[in-house]
Amino acid sequence: MAVDRMGHPQDEGSSSSVAAGILLSRLAGLARESLLRSVLALGPAADAFAAALRIPNLLQNLLGEGSLSASFIPVYSRLLGEGRRDEAGKVAAAVAGLLTALAGGLVVVAIVAARPLATLLAPGFEGARLDLTVDLLRITTGGLGLLVLSAWCLGILNSHGRFFLPYVAPVLWNVAQIAVLIAALTGDWSPTRAATGLAWGLMVGGALQFGVQVIAVRRLAPELRPWIGRTVGRGDPLVADVRRRFGPAVLGRGVLQLSGYLDLILASLLATGAVAGLLSAQMLYGLPVALFATSVAAASLPGMSRSPASELAATSLRARRRTAFFVAFSTVAFLVLGESIVAALFGWGAFDGDDARAVSLVLGAYALGLPAVASSRIHQNSLYAVGDTAGPARIAAVRVGLAAVIGLAVMFPMDRITVHAGELLTVTEDGWFGPLSRGIRSGSPDPHLGAVGLALGSAVAAWTELTLLARRTRRVLGAPTGPSSVMGPLASPVATAVVVAVTARWATDGLPDVAAAPLCVIVAGLAYVTVASATGVAEARSLITDLRGIRRRLVNR
Questions:
Q1: Per-residue DSSP letter, 435
Q2: CA atoms within 13 A on the CB side of 429
Q3: Which residues of the chain have pLDDT under 50?
Q4: Which of 84, 245, 251, 516 is the most exposed, having the fewest neighbouring CB atoms within 10 Å of its CB?
Q5: What's the burial of 77, exposed, middle or buried (CB within 10 Å: 0-12/13-18/19+)?
Q6: What is the pLDDT of residue 306?
């Protein structure tokens, strides 16, 4: 394993630890989502639960890992690298106190103002669906407030070279909810009771996730003493540096969260099931981003923060190439095999074939922007490492605005297309623009495709963001390479994977999706890696070498 000059694990070894932890937590998340769809399908209770997660997710993302990656981790890691452990501990304690005060205050406000917040988030909800959203919001907000402090633990652990635990800890969050969903299935609970129980399971899971990480932080850095007070960090230039970076980072994360809220608000104006369908598609769409972009970005950030600016350009290029290699194939899999993958994961219980086709179309639209989103993560971290948090925030604002404009223009025409018995049909209603009538929106038994329009807007905006980030990175770091230099060498492997995936899907047409999906993914993946290696893609050759090493170790045992 490669290490830096302070002995901290770096690059591939660290990103592998992050990826392993993320993989386990995401697999648990997929199991939870599969059970969730079997219990709630795409019905009103599913929409209410999805909407109730938005405010807690705001707290987690606004004050959590993304903001701390831009502000706290670079400063804390640099202090550790310089041997200034006592000062690093003071900064960490001050940040923990500030986060506790901010998160606690926002949680209280969200609980007290749950009804107006629910109305603001989902203006299309009314009656029982709105009441359930309010009840769920009051429960989930308290639980996910703890996840903000979990992100602080993640920053401490990552800076000390401990990558696996903080990324595998969300398994506990998912397990708590899985236990509730199993009880709902075996006990034949009503959708309302199941959604309420799931919200309480989410709260318990948040406490477990935070608890296991804070124990590890206590053992690793016993000198840390988080506390709250009006004078926390006052006059300390190091804490002032974190605060200076934190403000723009929070604004940047807030802009991205605004995008999620706009999607929710707009989706609530679509036919029932749009909100839940978006959530399921985003669960799958986020998997390769987390595994291959977040893992590389998280592992490289502490090292970037300790490195001179002259080395950042080369580090960023390596990270983007590694990320693009894996994400490009994920895009092919979602576009060509998406319906089979969705049906294999969620296609049981109340979730039927029409639901699978609708969700897969949303997933395919999101997947068009997947390579851009993944590469943008690396560009953002490169800028964060040199203290530039304002630039990515402004670019994120452009992305959100563009996604909203395109999504609003496309979603209503798409909502007039529905899936019935595997066929795409149009709704017989005058005009193609504006919301459907209330009766059709709430009473249609078939899934509509309005959410596809929102996903398309997101994809177009993601490529715009990447273009702007690449331009800024070149200006700040002097990096001569743009997106084409990273993705160009993958053209032949991607084309091969598409052909093989289409052929494999045709050949396995008679098999159940639970068997056909993994078989097709494996065959197409092997073709992709083989062609990439033959055309000189270093990441493919490295992967083959690693796989051969694993095989030799297994044989020797």
A1: P
A2: 20
A3: 1-11, 227-235
A4: 84
A5: buried
A6: 59
